[in-house]
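User: Please check token order:
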Amino acid sequence: MAGAELPSSLGGASAGGPAPTGEPRNAVERVASVFTRWAERWIPDAFVFALVATGLVVGAAVLSGRAGVGQVLRAWGDGFWELLPFTLQMVLVIITGYVLATTRLVYRGITWLASLPSEPRRAVAMVTLLAMLSSWFNWGFSLIFGAMLAREVARRVVGVDYRAVTAASFLGLGSIWAQGLSGSAALQMATAGALPPTIRAIVEGKGQIPGGIIPLSSTIFLWQSLVSVVVEVVVVTGVMFLATPPASRALTAEQMGISLGESPLERPEPARHGTPSEWLEHSSLLSLFFVVCSCAYLILYFAASDRPLNALNLNTLNLIFLTLGFLLHGTPARLMQAVREATPGVWGVILQFPLYAGIASVITRTHLSQSIADAFVKIATPESFPAVIAIYSAVLGIFVPSGGSKWVIEAPYVMQAAHDLKVHLGWMVAVYDLGEAVANLIQPFWMLPILGLFGLRARDVMGYTFLVFLVLTPLVLVLVTILGATLRYPM
């Protein structure tokens, strides 16, 4: 994991091996090389950001004069465990994504895709493109799908830079994931009970947004949001194509002393000893029973909704992916094996989300949110407000690297300011998503689940992700401003 020493068997960028030769052949490649060396020296562990953010918010709340030190600390402690349901939802997003990506049917597709490119640049561009497209459907699935695809590409494409292909597998989370079907903020706005009543009341305003519920049709399915997705996909794919070094300058997995190990297709079946209990574990009957019950429920659930697309939320998405995992793994034993393999990647979520909940509680319960909203109203106009929020969302995302928990922090003052300035509230959710995603390019937290699979540290890949950040940030500001001008308050 980032910030920790890797076992010698896994190696890493500093593990040795022959250094690449020759000069970078274009400006983009040169910049990527500079940023990679910088990241190796200066990037700390993600947990540090959560601790720093806690200190900054507690200090700001005290200095604002709206609450005393005791009140601020009470607010922090009272809110510390408020995101436990959401924490488990995020854990399940990661686990169900891994479970689905490692089924034999899906992995056969991954190996086929990895066999298509024969040249390093095209291989990295393909991984970038597919990682982004899959992240639109589910970021947890994309995280693992992209990693598995990148590892297979590293096995098959001679001379592909291991750092570049690893970075490419992560770029869905650094670009369009939050604008897709598993985007936390949009799902929270569309899901009753996903936000505290105090925040929902702010969103409702004076009755402009009934119940404080914003459906997906007013966030991720706005044509403006879909246009921004297409533009980002094209630009990021092009940047990674240009930034990838040729074979003569590449650091391959072999050169870095990293063993790529076996693929899920080579994994042996779970052991059997012939006992009645193991017969149940290896029987497809129980898995089929779960699939039938789940499918029947989902059919009834979506049929009962007047607008089935808007009925999507974190719980239904996780159930859909878990059901597919049951179906494609076939037996409880295979499913349990996949879940066991996925769980080491969720420790960061469990450790850090309570800290984010405490931050959100301080901001809302000490009325610091109102102070921030007032500041936004003073410095922004209806036309500039989307760009201001995109910048702020990206900056805060460096300290709070979680789309959902960070939205709990930002929603009160973003939505209040949107009402005050009479800006389309659904678009502000999309703007938040655009800004929030780019922060993942320079914040290593969400890289942690996959870096362990690659045997790398965050600093090994962040030269590439920081380059994409520099290109994507001004593009996002232009998109949110121009596209936002086509929408009208309140939704």
